[in-house]
């Protein structure tokens, strides 16, 4: 990145203004609470992906070969959200308030060997994704990696092609959102020939449940909510990955 002028003098001059402007962003449970009626559409935005051990390194979710609309519609963001690295865009997921969905097809894909390799590298670097539902962040991992044995050594890479969304509501408001792959088997990305294409079908499920909790968490999207490890844990995770 090229910085014009003296970085130190620039930061000293503009830092107070940036701090003030960052306060204009809002997070879940703070502003903009949406009220729904049964059957109302609930927009799921895709946001960003990046290596789990370095949460500051993020990219737009659609930079990966994933299910993507023909025309990408980005969400209008506040300055604070932009500086936080948010890149929200509408997704293909169709979610309606209090309506369960059982294994609906999101899209069919034909991936080239280069696209498969791109996904393999992302999974090997422990890429996570972040989606946003009603201003609530939901995070998960792009795929699954398994290392076992020493001699012989096995290295398996799998892509999650099905996501289970769990949303909790109280009255006409969404209180909690989460994504899970607990009962899902990853699709293997191993053994593909250079001239071979990989056919994939991405699917998803949505499960709604009522909760007695009346207020959602007041944490902002910039908070990880315990998803990311602390500094010491990141250090040991890097050693284990090595």
Number of strands: 14
Uncertain stretches: 1-31, 218-223, 231-242
Note the main sheet. 5 strands, antiparallel
Q: Please provide the ordered H/E string of secondary-structure elements.
A: HEEEHEEEHEEEEEEEEH
Helix percent band: 10-25%
Report the β-strand fraction as a percent range. Answer: 25-35%
Distance between the termini: 28 Å
Structural class designation: alpha+beta
Integer average pLDDT:
80
The oligomeric state of the chains shown is single chain
Number of helices: 4
Q: What integer value in Å does the Rg equal?
A: 20 Å
The number of domains: 1
Description:
- One of its GO terms (cellular component) is lysosomal membrane.
- Belongs to the nonaspanin (TM9SF) (TC 9.A.2) family.
- Plays an essential role in autophagy.
- The relative contact order is 0.19.
- The longest helix has 16 residues, at 7-22.
- Residues 1-31, 218-223 and 231-242 have low confidence and may be disordered.
- It is built from four helices and 14 strands.
- It has one domain (40-210).
- It has helices at residues 7-22, 79-83, 113-124, 231-241, and strands spanning 41-42, 44-51, 59-60, 89-90, 95-96, 101-111, 127-133, 136-141, 143-148, 154-159, 162-170, 173-180, 187-188, 198-210.
- It is of the alpha+beta class and 242 residues long.
- The two termini are 28 Å apart.
